[in-house]
Amino acid sequence: RATMRRHLSRRALWPWLGMSVCYVMYEQSFGTWLPLFNERYLLLDPIRAAQMLSLYVLGIALSRFMMAAIADRVSWFTVLAGMLVVALLLHTLTVSGLTQRWLGGALPAALVFATLGFFIGPIYPTLNALLLMRTPRADQASMQGLLVVFSASGGMLGSMMLGAMMRSMDANLAYVSSLVPLTLLLFSLFVIRRKAALLPETV
Fold first, then answer.
1. Count of Cβ atoms closer than 10 Å to residue 100 Cβ
2. Beta-carbon count within 10 A of 72 CB
3. What distance in Å separates the CA atoms of residue 172 and residue 167, rounded to the nearest whole number?
4. What digits encode the pLDDT tens for the residues 153-169?
């Protein structure tokens, strides 16, 4: 408990904690309600709508493997910022209906929307590793536990809030709200880049 309080007293760590909340808030709420979004907004049949969730999860896994393979050869900030910009663009185009109009149908739009998993997948593990590299080995377990607590809170809140909005408004309008944590993630990258430069690596 004392170690947790000591971590929380370090303001340099707050951007990572905010990132963990925003990331899992977006990732879990997006995946939880994606089949319903595909049914209500893109008017896909239930089976096809559920299949898009598998593509979303596969994209997350593939992009994490990719990032692990190239992490030593590229700038983490450049890669993650680029992927987040693409994710924001794809999300905005889909909820505005432009993807469906440009691609000529609901199924291509649903496929594009599901690829968002690929563009957000590496963010959480990459930034967590960046923080743990700057945490003394004796404190790494408690630091990881703190990140898990904050990320779990974000996941729970995100799924509950998006679910409530899906019940009370159009599916596309509910998914517009998901742009908020995604935008905050992009902002947090710039803050974390600055804070990471000030924290020496310990491992």
1. 21
2. 6
3. 12
4. 888 888 888 888 888 87
Give 37-43's long-range contacts (Cβ < 8 A, gap of 24+): 37/113, 37/166, 37/171, 37/172, 37/174, 37/175, 38/110, 38/113, 40/166, 40/170, 40/171, 41/170, 41/171, 41/172, 41/175, 42/100, 42/106, 42/107, 42/109, 42/110, 42/113, 43/106
Contact in structure between 182 and 88 (CB atoms under 8 Å): yes
Q: Is residue 15 over pLDDT 80?
A: yes
Q: CA angle 168-172-174, nearest 5°?
A: 45
The rounded distance, in Å, linking the Cα atoms of 99 and 104 is 8
Neighbours of 85 (CB within 10 A): 12
Cα(125)–Cα(159) distance, rounded to whole angstroms?
Answer: 20
Are 151 and 25 a contacting pair, CB within 8 Å? no
Residue linked to tokens 């493997």: 65
| DSSP calls for 19-72 | HHHHHHHHHHHHHHHHHHHHHHTS---HHHHHHHHHHHHHHHHHHHHHHHHHTT
Distances (CA, A) of 44 to 41, 53, 61, 62: 8, 13, 25, 25
